[in-house]
Amino acid sequence: NKQKIIFRQRNEAPGVYIKKLNKGIYYGFDGHYQGVDYKHYPLHWKNGDEIGEKFCFYKNEKLIKSSEIENSYSTNNVCYRVVQMSNGDYLFSYSNKIFILNSTTGKIIKEKKFPGARILSLLEDVKKGIWIGVYKKGLYYFPDGDMDKQPYHYLDSKSIGSVVQDREGGMWLTTLEKGVFYIQNYLVSNYFAAADLNCDKIQHFGLDLNQNIWANLDNGNVAVINHGQVSKINLNIIPDVINYIPHILMLNDGKMCVSGHLGCFVLNQQYKVEKKMSTVEGKSFGASCCLQTKKENAILLGVYHSLVKLKNNELTRYTFSDRIFSMDEDQGGQIWLACMNGLWKFKDEKFTYFGDQWPELKTRINDLKISEGNVIWMATKNEGLLIKHNNKILKINEANGLLSNVCSTVFLENEKSAWLSTNKGLSHIVIKSFSPLLFTTYNYSTHNGLLSNETSEVIVKNDSVYVLSNEGISVFNKTLLRANAVPPPVYISKLHINDSLVGVKDTFYLSYNQNNIVLNYIGLTYKDVENTLYKYRLKGLDTTWKCTKYTTANFTTLPYGNYTFEVYARNNDGYWSTAPARISFCIAPPFWHTWWFRILSLTALLSGIFLIIRYRIRVVEKRETEKTDLYKKAAENEKEKSELFQKAIDMELKFLSGQMNPHFTFNAMNSIQNFILDNNPLKANKYLTKYSRLIRLVLENNMQSTVPLSKEIEMLRLYAEMESMRFARKVDFDLSIAADLKDVDCKVPPMIIQPYIENSFWHGLRYKEEGEARISMHFSLESGSVKCVVEDNGVGREKAKAFTSKEKSHRSVGIFITEQRLKHLHTFSDKLVKTEIIDLVDAGGIACGTRAVLYLPVLEDKI
User: Fold this and answer.
1) Whether 147 contacts 131, CB under 8 Å
2) Strand, helix or coil at 330?
3) Separation CA 771–CA 467 (nearest Å)
């Protein structure tokens, strides 16, 4: 709002202090004073004689409304403040008075006086509460704007010059003595143990029959809080209890039961000792807790390893093995005990332990309360809140919303609403369903305005919540204290580029070497600054968000490109900024990554490649010409070499084949000689006839490198007959040809199979003493080669070697020649060429013959 001074003449007296409101309407004071210099003292009148005051409304410098104001304050140091309220009326202060003026009539509709005070500041907050700053009297707050009710009072003895409310609801105060103050949550009233209650620690607090809060102080006094007013009662008159009153129980008849480490005292309503209990059964005791039962109307005292009952002025002690911290009575009159080792029940003068039935109940229980339906609520030391409901143990802990698992006390607001004090603050649990367990948790801590997170007890009185902590007592209205739902705005506060601080703007255009960027950002929230969370990303580098509590983001050696930095802030209650703080960077590429440099480089590269290719083509053409000439000469030489090589192979095959003839002739001559020596000319003649025929076939076949298979078979049959004639015993010779081979004109090398038949006669059958002697030969076509199998039922190769070594030498010559011939055949044939010798054995593993398998290359022509 715009303020200015207007000088008017009224009965020869200059004018008024005026503040512009809206639509051309002004307010101000009009009056009759003498000797007043308004130019120098526009906010108050000084050294003048009072004539009269009016609160006036002007429009276009014409008076439209006015109200008479009684001046009951000294004309010296008079202050005026005016604010327009949300309903349109005006809140106006004049010296030590507050007025509310109707905006339509201009009449005063409310007036309140602050005796002995001078009002310095006014404010109506967003919830229509009224704040009044007073000189040397602190700050007064009327939560709903009703100045007839008792206000909250802050910063007593301070002069509050101005009051401002921020967007999160926090209050900022300027003082004339101690600078600026910030009220994080003005809905919480705090009673400091040291400052307000003059004690070091508050032991315990509770409600009396009149719903007043009683707080046991460590100095032996009791503080009573009623409607924000604190009064004290000195209980030091009680003997032996000075400076230690851990527990006070308000009895149903208005009396008070005070328990301590030296015993228990019953006080009447005048706080006089009516009964002292310090010994039972001849032993002294100290009580840690007490309970007045409903069924028996007795007082139960929790004593170390025992329970003491006071009934009809008689004390009875019940000893058991645990230490009691708290107790409560269910609807059936049973007493449930919260103990060091878990949960106990006291009934019919007997104790029952429940830790064995439910292992969860073996933990230390600091406090318990029983609601309707005998539901037991237990505040534990390490397991959070345990609820015994219908023989089931339900657990609420940090994992499902509780502030801490270390709990001190539990207060039941109703059967489904419990308040839990913990070492990390206050938790409010609202049960929606026990089966299944459904609930909502509301948590309160120092960021909500509590004095401390080390809370020890809690009491709910109507809508007011009283929280006891190690610093004092905090009070708040549960219906007004809500989560901080104001999204915090977030700003980029600083920017460093290559370690140089630059001014923040929306977009930066940088060179390629300006690529080290450090950003500082801040979220404007004052409720719980240390728990403000941020998330940021650099679009163009990464699409994922990074969460942190730090307010700095560092990016080094960024490659060239376009980037946008975005950051959000989240307040302590989980509300994120509605819009991010954003800043863009365009990092130019280095010259070697620019389009013109790439075009020049590509042109130069292509030109160089063209020249190199052209040169290489010429070199290759020249080299190819030289190679062509060399290839022609080499081809001619290769052709000559190939022809010579083929001739050499043919000659070598003919030579090896020729080697077979002398070998065979030698064997045949030996056979004829044996017939003659045996005086068997008939067999010799017959043998000689077959031999001449065989010689003729061999000579004919020797003229060629390959012969028809039919001629080779005929030659082999004659040979077998000749060998049978000179053999000592009858030999059955069986020769067969596969059907697929009969229709094919095959050519094979001559005399290549004969050595294997010879081995069968003279090595396999020669030493066979019993049974039939047999040689079989079978021809077939396989994989484009002639497969020849020669098999005998002789003694086998190993046994034959044992008889003589002469045949071994003889066999080696024939077999060696045959293997050499096959080796040379393989060099110019792509067909299967190989030999295989197999030793045959019977079922008993005894040698029963030999099998030779030959694969010979052939030429095939259909007949």
Assistant:
1) no
2) coil
3) 120
Alpha carbons 25 and 31: distance in angstroms, whole number: 19
pLDDT at res. 226: 72
Separation between Cα atoms, residue 268 and residue 237, nearest integer Å = 13
pLDDT for 10: 38
Give the position of tokens 């101000």: 28
Q: Say what the pLDDT of residue 12 is.
A: 35
Q: Are the C-beta atoms of 141 and 186 separated by less than 8 Å?
A: yes
- Phi first, then psi, for residue 527 (nearest 5°) are -65, -45
Task: Of 106, 141, 105, give the one whose Cα is nearest residue 121.
Answer: 141
Tokens of 619: 């070199």
DSSP letters, 365-412, are EEEEEEETTTEEEEEESSS-EEEEETTEEEEE-GGGT-S-S-EEEEEE
Residue 811 CA: distances (Å) to CA of 74, 725, 766, 786, 859: 152, 20, 14, 23, 29
pLDDT tens-place string over residues 439-487: 988 888 887 778 889 998 999 988 889 998 888 888 888 876 766 677 8
- Rounded to 10 deg, the angle between the 806-827 and 595-677 helix axes is 140
Reduce the DSSP state of residue 674 to 3 states and report it.
Answer: helix
Please give the Cα distance from 380 to 388 (Å, whole number). Answer: 13
| Residue 416 vs residues 190, 368, 370, 406, 488: alpha-carbon distances, Å | 28, 15, 11, 21, 34
Q: What is the DSSP string of 789-805?
A: EEEE-SS-HHHHHHH-S
What would the pLDDT profile of 93-152 be if each residue is shown by its tens digit? Answer: 877 888 888 877 777 888 888 877 788 899 998 888 899 999 888 888 888 888 888 787
> What does R_g of the chain's alpha carbons equal in angstroms?
60
Instruction: Specify the pairing of strand 581-587 against strand 507-510.
Output: parallel
Tell me how far apart the alpha carbons of residues 637 and 640 are, in angstroms, rounded to a whole number.
Answer: 5
**Which helix or strand (DSSP H or E) is residue 713 part of?**
helix 709-725
In the numeric block, the tokens 């007004």 are attached to: 480
How do strand 80-84 and strand 62-69 relate by DSSP bridges? unpaired
Residues in the chain, overall count: 863
- In angstroms, how far apart are the furthest CA atoms of the chain? 189
Please give the Cα distance from 561 to 585 (Å, whole number).
8
Q: Are 484 and 572 spatial neighbours (Cβ–Cβ below 8 Å)?
A: yes
- C-alpha span between 452 and 675 (Å, rounded): 134
